[in-house]
């Protein structure tokens, strides 16, 4: 079993069929039970009792020794403008995380959280206020996909790890989740339709490039030089831009996949034409595309989004320098859709 006993009870939805087979062996059960359990988990049963093709005695023993995580929807907000749905999922230990379901022309996309809280400390982000509480397990990552899909009645066509948390700070569970997600007897979401977004943990990027998984890498850059980036994102002191860009280039070379550069536009801070030129300089010759994201205002923070005209001007400079970019639509901005905001507002309400 990969899970160490100090991690608490074995979480059934975190296990691959071969790991469940090992568990069945330990419990003196035939191996074929593993496939049955895996299939129930992927179908989204919320109780071990519902696995009705397992003998009652096995169900009892599973209940005693294992945990079947099944989040509850604490809040569900739907945008009147574009149908985006934001879920606040309550976890078995009283914590909560957010997932956001978005409708695009090419299908339904889900944005999931990778941790409860975050310890990266980016100045403009709501997820990091209050720090990291804990990692999500692989099963809890999968739960978000299963239960958002079930509630909305939509098949999830693509997935982004851009919610609360830093996915490469929860590396093992995230990569194990990719294997669960892609499994032929499971949810079967192709990893070509999965993107992982990082604030720039260089060793994690290099490790991921060697996993042989065709996931798309997004890098949250947000600033074109070290002085500004370190002021906005403390992770930059540890892994400065030169190291980060070199890792991005290695990822593109190893996987053949285009890198997405996320750049949140903050008025008067990182949105000048000179900064666009500096950014283009960093990206010369790299297989990449820039997403320009208007800042979502966060309660209690001073920063405001760049005006539309400044964003267009920035994008124009990038274009003239040979760098392609898209201005992200602000989906769900009437429902606190910026990551971490719903969890924060829920915590504040509970406190008052
Ligand atoms: N930790 C990962 C993934 C979570 S954040 C990362 O840093 O990439 C997902 C994206 O939302 C990141 O690009 C992040 O910088 C951005 N973001 C955070 N707060 C934001 C805000 N208030 N407005 C717009 N984008 C924001």
Describe this structure in words.
There is one protein chain. The protein is α/β, with parallel strands linked by helices and 352 residues long. It contains twelve helices and 14 strands. The strands form three sheets. It has a ten-stranded mixed β-sheet with strand order 3-4-5-6-9-10-11-12-13-14. Helix 1 crosses helix 2 (32-43), helix 4 (138-152) packs across helix 5 and helix 10 (273-283) crosses helix 11 (308-320). The termini are far apart. The structure holds S-adenosyl-L-homocysteine. The site of S-adenosyl-L-homocysteine has 18 residues, from strand 10 and strand 12.
Keywords:
globular, 352 residues, two-stranded parallel ribbon, 20% strand, ten-stranded mixed beta sheet
In short:
This protein has helices spanning 17-26, 32-43, 56-65, 138-152, 171-182, 202-209, 226-232, 235-238, 241-255, 273-283, 308-320, 341-351; strands spanning 10-11, 66-67, 72-78, 85-90, 96-104, 107-111, 115-117, 132-135, 158-161, 194-198, 216-220, 259-265, 288-294, 325-327. The chain is of the alpha/beta class and 352 residues long. It has a 10-stranded mixed sheet. A two-stranded parallel sheet has the order 1-2. Strands 7-8 form a two-stranded antiparallel ribbon.
Rg on CA atoms, Å: 21 Å
Report the principal-axis shape. globular
Sheet with most strands: strand arrangement: 3-4-5-6-9-10-11-12-13-14
How confident is the prediction overall: mean pLDDT?
93
Q: Give the termini distance in whole angstroms.
A: 43 Å
Note the total helix count.
12
Spans where pLDDT lies below 50 across 5 or more residues: 1-5
């Amino acid at each position: 079993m990969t899970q160490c006993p100090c991690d608490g009870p074995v979480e059934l939805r975190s296990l691959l069929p071969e790991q469940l087979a090992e568990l069945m062996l330990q419990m003196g059960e035939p191996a074929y039970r593993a496939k049955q359990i895996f299939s129930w988990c992927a179908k989204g049963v919320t109780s071990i009792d519902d696995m009705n093709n397992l003998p009652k005695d096995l169900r009892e023993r599973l209940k005693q020794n294992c945990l079947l995580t099944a989040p509850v929807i604490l809040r569900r907000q739907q945008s009147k403008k574009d149908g985006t749905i934001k879920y606040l999922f309550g976890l078995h230990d009283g914590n909560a995380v957010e997932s956001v379901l978005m409708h695009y022309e090419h299908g339904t996309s889900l944005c999931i959280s990778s941790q409860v809280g975050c310890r990266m400390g980016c100045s403009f982000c709501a997820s990091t206020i209050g720090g990291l509480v804990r990692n999500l397990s692989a099963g809890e990552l999968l739960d978000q996909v299963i239960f958002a899909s079930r509630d909305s009645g939509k098949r999830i066509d693509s997935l982004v790890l851009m919610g609360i948390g830093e996915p490469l700070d929860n590396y093992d569970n995230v990569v194990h989740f990719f294997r669960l997600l892609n499994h032929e007897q499971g949810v079967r979401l192709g990893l070509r339709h999965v993107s992982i977004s990082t604030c720039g943990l260089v060793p994690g990027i290099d490790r991921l490039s060697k996993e042989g998984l065709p996931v798309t890498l997004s890098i949250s850059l947000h600033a074109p030089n070290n002085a500004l980036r370190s002021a906005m994102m403390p992770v930059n002191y540890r892994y400065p831009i030169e190291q980060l860009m070199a890792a991005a280039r290695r990822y593109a070379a190893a996987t053949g996949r285009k890198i997405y550069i996320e750049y949140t536009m903050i008025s008067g801070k990182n949105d000048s034409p000179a900064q666009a030129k500096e950014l283009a300089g960093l990206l010369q010759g790299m297989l990449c595309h820039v997403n320009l994201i208007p800042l979502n205002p966060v309660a209690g923070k001073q920063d405001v989004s760049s005006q539309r005209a400044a964003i267009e001007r920035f994008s124009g400079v990038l274009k003239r320098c040979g760098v392609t970019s898209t201005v992200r639509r602000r989906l769900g901005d009437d429902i606190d859709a910026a990551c971490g905001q719903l969890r924060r507002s829920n915590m504040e309400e509970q406190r008052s």
